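Can't paste images in this forum, so I'm doing it all in text. The chain is below; anyone willing to post the predicted structure tokens underneath?
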Amino acid sequence: MKGGEEALPDYEMLELILFLAQPRGDTKPLAKQLIARFGSYAAVISAEPKELKEITGIGDAAVVALKTVRDAAVRLAREEIIGAPVLSSWQALIDYCRATMGHAKQEQFRLFYLNKKNVVIADELQQTGTVDHTAVYPREVVKRALDLGATAIIMVHNHPSGDTKPSRGDIEMTLEVKEVSEKLGIRLHDHVIIAKSGATSFKSQGLL
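Text version of the structure:
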């Protein structure tokens, strides 16, 4: 309480969360085992419940505690971008996307719809699974933008492999969305690829 967020190393943070969920017994070995299995504090709280339960000693109460911490972090990050001019709070957007998608095992495709002041008016996860780069995306993206009265879009998807380099399919799909949206007066500000190790912006790479 006195030292703040930097007072405890990762395993001790996990130890404290686990102790609150199951106050009987020593949770330090379990916390260290979780770090060893998943690699980091962020990876532990982002792991799927079934993966967590593979660790002996992790029951429903511990899973609920870990996932509650993760979801609380996501909500805090989301508060930083909703209702704010996103282009002036770009790092907050990247932090939110890394928190929500960076450790996902499946590819996810997320859309941020913006108004004339570049304020986020909608944050929507359009698809989870292997992204199939077909013409369905431009139609769905632009139709939803028109429904919301949005004037700009930011597209985000993750690469579970950890490599944020755009594929040829990523580039082709992005340019197609840009072409279709611009014809209707909707600007594609950027397309960002997220991984647990970082992020790559199409705009900063000269791909938009």
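The CA atoms of residues 92 and 138 lie 26 Å apart. The mean pLDDT is 88.
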